[in-house]
Design brief:
The complex is a heterodimer of chains A (279) and B (290). By secondary structure, chain A is mainly alpha-helical. In chain A, 79% of the residues lie in helices and 0% in strands. Chain B is mostly helical. Chain B has 15 helices and two strands. In chain B, strands 1-2 form a two-stranded antiparallel ribbon. In chain B, a hairpin with a 7-residue loop joins strand 1 and strand 2. Chain B is globular, with a radius of gyration of 24 Å. Chain B starts with a helix and ends with a helix. The chains are: A mainly alpha (279), B mainly alpha (290). Chains A and B meet through helix 1, helix 4, helix 5, helix 6 and helix 7 of A and helix 1, helix 2, helix 5, helix 6 and helix 7 of B.
């Protein structure tokens, strides 16, 4: 009896602890939402963060999207991400395929060589990229941006794809060759389709990290019409220094797409990450 | 024989696109940076060769660089001591069997997917001295305490770290969860039979078995700590008075704001050299394990 009640107390304590942690963790989101619902005059009148204003400032959101150009920033980010992610995965998968299933020399060495890029800070390549881009006229272009993104994303992509492809049994290749497949057919008809779970995980994590990238985008793009969301949101904040409600509405709007992607594909994060680790 | 040679060429062809992009985006620019860092240059006029002059200057004659270096080292210590401990704590709690576990996992991981720059901006409102959450919270409870947080040089670095912590626990937490699940229940059972309490079991059985996970978490945390940029840039931009300058932010401001391109690239190269100290042992460790 006492053992059972001890167990229940433990459970209750666990939920209390989790509840407190969750409350602390929600503070930033709460602050963001609570501020975005207020007009400039509400702050002037000294309304507390914890009170609702007399009139909820829905127009903050509308203005942020239209006048604040958030819709343009989102469109740009979407274009860049949807060019970068599939191409990056394709290029990375080809490389991983060659490292794992075609008998190339020094395949571990090649892998390590590609892996180093994951750890290098982007700052090291920033100045040369900027110089070369200004010579080639690639600054302020979508191509310029997603090309460097592919380069910096390649290491992680190869790491995940190589891990997955290593686990696919070699008999499959033998059978395919006997059936008359060449290497390319083996890749796109057999190995790549088998690797779909890895591709799916990669697609989502890669999409989010591309969507969120700030440093490279801030150096390569300075045309307001071409900025991606992170760079755009910094501009937005710079332009509207004290209109807090409006600013928070803008940031909230910029976070919503990510929130939706996360909610829909949530299982890919927690499970997919763990899978990538094990391999 | 001839056929074998031909087919091998085909194998390398699959590497070509990746190699071309990787070489042009990372390898060549990195070496070019090393080269530029040997010059005194403003990005426009002629370069003046100064050898290792930029590096000597950084270490002997540049207090801001030394602040940035110190801040990066503090940041590494903070992430190892705080971020790792907190995320391990979360992983241990969220590894227990209870209803709603997946929801909580997803919830605590969530800040990870927000853009770091947006996180920085959100935390500006938490730290805002007038309308921010913390000071408003104190006010709501009638406590008359005001602190300017990010504009106070003494606390600003730690204030930024809290924002980074909020976002940063997700990734190591997932790694620890995977690690915890790989510890076999039989071993833990055996330890229980031998009379080990749950704390003892955790430190003497679970932790040693997760050695690989710890190495991985520590390595990724150090690499991330060396690179930290977005959250600092978004919250303080290195200020007030350079007190939160990091190598990454300092590199950016030297290069793109003050046009000391040679100096800025030298800072970037120092970052790479420092990271090699972590990367080389890490890669050789993982290669050995396999």
């Amino acid at each position: 009896m006492s053992g059972k009640s001890k167990k229940i107390t433990k459970k209750v304590l666990l939920y209390v602890l989790l509840g407190i942690l969750a409350l602390i963790w929600i503070i930033p989101i709460f602050t963001l939402v609570a501020t975005s619902l207020k007009h400039k005059k509400d702050f002037m009148s000294g309304l507390s963060l914890f009170q609702l204003p007399a009139e909820i400032a829905w127009d903050n959101f509308y203005n942020a999207i239209t006048k604040g150009r958030l819709i343009t920033y989102m469109k740009n980010d979407l274009i860049v991400s949807f060019l970068k992610v599939p191409l990056g995965i394709f290029v990375g998968s080809l490389a991983a395929f060659s490292m794992t299933r075609l008998k190339i020399k020094h395949s571990t060495g090649v892998f390590v060589f590609f892996l180093i890029g994951m750890m290098l800070p982007m700052q090291t390549a920033l100045v040369p990229i900027n110089m070369i881009y200004s010579k080639l006229g690639l600054l302020n272009t979508y191509f310029g941006l997603f090309y460097v993104y592919i380069g910096f994303g390649l290491s992680y992509c190869i790491l995940v794809m190589r891990g997955f492809m290593k686990g696919i049994p070699g008999d499959i290749d033998e059978a395919a060759y006997i059936d008359g497949c060449n290497k390319w057919q083996l890749f796109y008809k057999i190995i790549f389709p088998i690797a779909k779970p890895a591709v799916a995980t990669l697609f989502i994590t890669d999409f989010l990290s591309t969507w969120n990238e700030y440093l490279l985008a801030s150096v390569i793009i300075n045309d307001n019409g071409l900025k991606t969301v992170p760079v755009g949101i910094m501009t937005f904040v710079g332009e509207h220094g004290t209109d807090y409600g409006y600013l928070c509405a803008g940031v909230l709007v910029s976070v919503i797409p990510v929130m939706i992607v996360y909610l829909v594909f949530q299982r890919y994060f927690v499970e997919g990450m763990a899978g990538a680790v094990k391999s | 024989m001839k056929k074998g040679k031909k087919s091998n060429f085909g194998a390398y062809a699959f590497l070509i696109p990746a190699a071309v992009i990787y070489l042009s985006v990372i390898v060549v620019p990195v070496f070019y940076s090393l080269f530029i860092s040997l010059f005194k240059w403003n990005g426009v006029s002629d370069r003046e060769f100064v050898g290792l002059g930029n590096y000597v200057n950084l270490f002997t004659n540049d207090p801001t660089f030394l602040i940035a270096l110190k801040n990066n080292l503090i940041w590494i210590v903070l992430t190892i001591c705080v971020t790792m401990t907190v995320s391990l704590g979360f992983a241990v709690i969220l590894n227990k069997q209870f209803r709603g576990r997946t929801v909580f996992r997803a919830f605590f991981y969530f800040p990870c997917v927000i853009a770091p720059i947006a996180v920085a901006i959100i935390w500006r409102w938490i730290y805002n001295p007038n309308i921010g959450f913390i000071n408003q919270f104190f006010k709501a409870f009638g406590i008359n305490y005001k602190q300017t947080w990010i504009s106070d040089p003494k606390v600003s670095l730690y204030a930024i770290f809290i924002a980074a912590l909020w976002q940063g626990i997700g990734q190591p937490m997932i790694l620890f969860l995977a690690g915890l699940q790989s510890v076999s229940p039989d071993v833990l059972e055996a330890a229980t039979i031998d009379g080990a309490g749950s704390v003892r079991k955790f430190f003497s059985v679970t932790c040693p078995l997760m050695k690989e996970t710890f190495v991985m978490v520590i390595a990724t945390l150090i690499v991330a700590a060396m690179k930290v940029y977005d959250v600092v840039q978004g919250l303080t931009g290195g200020g007030p008075n350079n007190s939160t300058q990091m190598l990454a932010t300092y590199m950016y401001s030297q290069t793109f704001q003050y046009n000391n391109v040679g100096m800025g690239t030298a800072v970037a190269c120092v970052m790479v050299l420092m990271m090699m100290v972590v990367i080389v042992p890490y890669i050789s460790f993982t290669a050995k394990e396999k």
